[in-house]
Design brief:
It contains 6 helices and 5 strands; from the N terminus they run βαβαβαβαβαα. By secondary structure, it is α/β, with parallel strands linked by helices.
């Protein structure tokens, strides 16, 4: 089975993430959007909240499911029977970092390949941290994140639409 995994912290999910989900869903018969839980990070949204935000965001894609995992992505991928890990690239600095991880993953689990998808030009500057920062100060994030995410951020920060 050609199962691909698109993993991240998704804190919060953005239109950049949604673009990669949509594109991966057209390239692979089955895609898991996998929320990585990291014990050293202090996310704005709990893993349950992020899972719910992602589930709503991924509803239009029947071949996409949302899940979460602890530990190494490659071990999760092997457990799930994945063949491909999908990673998004925004800029050259992303490439260097992601290539290093892809090489380590290939060394540890050669049966998993990494596929890089460059972001669309209009999403190249969007990051979850940028969206959080704008939302925290009451700025308009509607062009950066889906409506359910915008509502969750407004609620989290107590800001108005």
């Amino acid at each position: 089975m050609n199962l691909a995994i698109y993993a991240g912290s998704f804190d919060p999910p953005t239109y950049g993430h949604l673009d990669l989900v949509e594109r991966a869903s057209k390239l692979f018969p089955k895609v898991i959007v996998a929320l990585g839980r990291h014990p050293t990070k202090q996310p704005l949204f709990s893993s349950e909240e992020r899972t719910e935000l992602l589930t709503v965001m991924c509803e239009p894609f029947p071949n996409v499911t949302v899940d979460s995992f602890d530990g190494l992505l490659i071990e999760y991928g092997v457990r799930m029977g994945a063949r491909v890990i999908v990673r998004g690239l925004r800029a050259g600095t992303d490439f260097e970092y992601e290539l290093q991880i892809a090489h380590a993953n290939a060394d540890l689990r050669p049966e998993l390949d990494t596929v890089f998808l460059p972001t669309r030009t209009n999403y190249g500057f969007i990051s979850a941290s940028l969206v959080r920062e704008i939302a925290m100060h009451g700025g308009d994030i509607t062009r950066y994140a889906p409506p359910n995410v915008c509502a969750a951020l407004r609620k989290k920060f107590g800001t108005k639409p």
